[in-house]
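Protocol step 6 of 9: fold each sequence in the batch and record its structure tokens directly after the sequence line. For illustration, a two-sequence batch is reproduced in full.

Sequence one:
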Amino acid sequence: MHAVTLISNPFDSAVASEHSNYCSYDGKRLVGADGTPPSPLTAFVHDGFRSLTLNEHFSCVGAKAAIRQGGYRFGLFEALGSPASCAGLAKDLFSFIQDRETLHTDFQTFVASFAGPLPADELAFERLLWATLQHLHELDAAQYDWTEGVAADTADPHFSFSFAQTAFFVVGLHAASSRVTRRFAWPTLIFNPHDQFDRLRSSGRYPRMQQVIREAERTLQGSVNPMLTEFGERSEASQYSGRQVGSDWQCPFHVRRDQPPGAKE
């Protein structure tokens, strides 16, 4: 399913352990990595996210399936864009990648919510989103090549965010989003492994899923998200934050120049 084998977590450090918050849902409640209850705030934010996703009008059927089937992991971190939170997120995202083989679900996702800061507008959120992905990349580049089969250049139509040799489509949620189904009180990044979309395309199920999502968006908001495109038509980087941008938009993300030679740019 993915290129990472079960090895010790290369992103574990004193800072990462201090800010790690890896949780799973046991069918009744959220539990921490060691089986103990998470903080009340972590459980509160998680329950709010489940309620949003499982609402009948929520448009993303893939996310809905992942939550309903238990194919997800959750973490609440302190501050979107902060190096300390990113260290904890890197550790937990790697744990999720290793856990994927045990999930046995068609849809899998890692949900990272943050206690703050609350972005004033879509542009502020976009900056924090890409600051977070840049921090993750800096940690990742010291360990892994860019994922094979996707581009590292954010302007390339085949770009996808890479972490631990796993390609992710990232979806941002926040309170100031112009898209209704992306509005959530806490800034949140959803990391969707790309290979599950590839399997849907191979099986011929992807067009139907896309149609259902677009019909739900029209019903809820009266329009389809104008940033939605097929993979390979336009860089998916412009879709991550949810903000509508023009063709002249430039992504603030940069691949490290000492990125291992396996990277495709």
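Sequence two, same batch, same settings:
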Amino acid sequence: MPVSRTLAVNYTQDEKVFDVKYQNQFLFGDAILVAPVESTKQTAEVYLPAGDWYRLSSGEKFAGGLAVLVAAPLTDLPVFIKPGGIVPMQHVIQSTNEQGDGILELHIWYGKEANSFVYYEDDGSSYAYQKGAYYKRKISFDPAKKQISLAAVEGSFISKYTKIALVLHGFEGKTKGKMKKIDVNGKALEMTDNAVSFPNSSETIKIDF
């Protein structure tokens, strides 16, 4: 399935996604919906398919199956995330050749259903990945177990990120003020609140909330 695709690919039975008003909206990856807006407009009517959606910039939660009118200044393109969405990010760099600050931000939006995401990294310039020089790990969110887990790393590539910052969205009231614990390969790490950062270990990481 294409990374970037029309809403009709995922929501074929929803007649509203075929409305010409929403023809420029598209899905990016498993969790992101993007609504392009003309540069001369400050608001946009966005159709959100069934299920809840979080606005990326504000964290505001919207019910799906409806068209919503949202602010759309030039500095804030309407982008929405599905509950359970797992999206890795990094601080701004000017090109892929830059090393950056070594921090991988792992953003997770609370949802009632479990979800998983496979994070992948390689040198981006050679075929070394064909010989195992890649970095891959499965990241899982399980609301029933109240746990976020990062599987052990596969591959021999050394990630450029030395630290992971876990950023939670929509978890208010779910964590009782702070995370419970982080285990790296069965060994507990100290933590204070939901602004959690920890070493990017290649071992299994489990976070209880």
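Proceed to step 7 once all outputs are recorded. Observation for sequence two: The chain has two domains: 4-81, 86-208.
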